């Protein structure tokens, strides 16, 4: 599942819970005062947590890909 738009630290866990494995993140990576690298790690971690919470134990695995969109 590919989610393009609206992905940020507040929505990443939710889209992960719904099975998103490709996240396109744009403006969330350019927030003033935040490290882009740290924001990528945070968003991926939240999405993975959402997927893990929603997936049956035997189907867990895989990491969501994070694609930075040109804003």
Furnish the topology, listing elements before pairings.
Elements: E1 2-4, H1 12-17, E2 22-25, H2 36-54, E3 65-68
Parallel strand pairs: 1-2, 2-3
Short descriptors:
35% helix, 71 residues, alpha/beta
- Largest sheet geometry: 3 strands, parallel
How much is the radius of gyration in Å? Answer: 12 Å
Number of helices: 2
Q: Roughly how much helix do the residues carry, as a percent range?
A: 25-40%
Unreliable segments (pLDDT under 50, ≥5 consecutive)? Answer: none
What features would you describe in this structure?
The protein has 71 residues and is α/β, with parallel strands linked by helices. It contains two helices and three strands; from the N terminus they run βαβαβ. It has helices at 12-17, 36-54; strands spanning 2-4, 22-25, 65-68. The protein has a three-stranded parallel sheet, with helices on one face. The radius of gyration is 12 Å and the shape is globular. The relative contact order is 0.27.
């Amino acid at each position: 599942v590919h989610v393009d738009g609206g992905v940020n630290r507040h929505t990443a866990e939710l889209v992960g819970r719904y099975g998103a494995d490709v996240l396109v993140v744009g403006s969330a990576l350019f927030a003033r005062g935040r490290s882009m690298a740290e924001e990528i790690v945070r968003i991926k971690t939240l999405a993975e947590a959402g997927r893990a919470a929603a997936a049956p134990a035997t189907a867990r695995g895989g990491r969501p890909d994070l694609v930075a969109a040109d804003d």
